[in-house]
Input
Amino acid sequence: MRFSSFFVKTLKDWPSDEENPSARYLIRAGFIDKNSAGVYTFLPLGLCALEKINKVIREELNRIGASELLMPALISKKYWQATNRWDVDVMYKVKDSSGQDYGLAFTHEEVLTPLLKKFISSWRDLPVALYQIQSKFRDEPRARAGLLRTKEFVMKDLYSFHADAKDLDSYYNEAAGGYKKIFKRLGLNAKPVEASGGDFTEEYTHEFQVLTPAGEDEIFYCDKCDFAQNKEIAKAKEGEKCPSCRSGKIIKENGIEVGNIFKLGTKFSEAAELKFKDKEGKDRLVVMGSYGIGPSRIMGAIAEVSRDEKGIIWPEEVSPFKVHLVELEGGREQAEEAYKVLTDGGVETLYDDREDVSAGEKLTDADLLGITWRIVASARTMKQNKVEIKRRAAKEASEVTLAEAVAYVK
Output
C-alpha cells in the first residue's frame, strides 16, 4: 500500500488532552482518533492492527473447537429482565419509535442462552462452544486511559455449554491454554490471576493481567510459583511468604486485564430454562462457561508495554504491515523495484512514496508507526546495489541485497 493512496495521518506533536502514554502514542501515530471521552475511531492503520489481533484470536479459538457467530448489540428489555440485569448501572438504554425498551449489549449471555433453547434438547447436542467479536457498550463513569477504559469497545466473548461440571472443567482448562497461546503470539506476557466471581459464581475466576504501572488493578503474585491473586481476594500482602509454595515472596504490581474466564454454572441456563435430556431421559440444566478477551484493550496494552521514546514497537503478528518501505532522495527506481518484489512475494508493505517530504520526517514516521521491518532505498543504497534493512526493535541497520531483504522479512 502506498502512502499516496492509503490514509496515513501522523501528528507532529503529542496530543495535549491525553495523559496515558498508550493513548498518546496511538493518537500521534494515527492509529486512533478520539471522538469523545471513552469513544474512539479506529483509523485505517489502527483497524489493520486490530484485525491482526482478531485473526490470532480466531485461529486459537477455532483450534479449541469454538464456532464464530454474530449476535445483535440491541437487546430487548425482556431478555435482561429474565436475568435481573435490566437495572445494572453500566447499561445504555434506548427506546424505539413504538416505545419498546432495549439495552445496548455489554455482554451476551442473555441472547445466546435462549437462542440455544431452539437447538439443544439432548445430551447428544452437547458440548457447544460459540464466540463472537463485536462492539460492546458500557456506561463507564471513569472513561480514561485511551483504549484501556472506554464506553465503546471491541470484545471477544466465548460461551461454552456442557452436560456437567466435569466437562465444563475440562473445557475451561482448554480455553485457559488457548488464551495463553493467544497472548504469547500477541507479544504479551499475560499472567493468569485468580479473581472473585462476583455475581457470576462462588468459585474463583481467572483474569489474564499484563503487568505494567499503567494498569489499574493491583496484583499480588509469588516470585517463585504460579500463585497470583487480584487485590479484591488477595490472601497475602506484599513482602510476605507465598501461601502456596511457602518459599517464594509476594510481589505487588499493577496490571491491565486483557482477558477473563468464568465458570458460570447454571445461573443463566436456569433463567432461560435451557435444559437437556440426559442418557436416562431426565431433564437437566445446561452448565455454562464464559470467556472474554478485549481486542481493543489489547491494542492499548501493547502500545503501553512495547514502545520506546520514538514510537510503538508492534509485535510481528500485530504489526499493521510487515514492511515499511521508505524512499529517500534518489532512490525512487530502487524503491519501486523493491515494492514490486515485496508485494508480488505476498509481503504486506507500506510504501512511503511521498514527494516533498524530508528524509528526517519519513524516518521519524517510520519509528512512530512501529512496523516490524523498515527497508530504505536511497541514492547511496542504489549505487551499492543494496538496501538498508532494520528491525524496529533493533538499534542498528544492515545493508543487504534486495533478495536478502525479502528473505529476511518472509
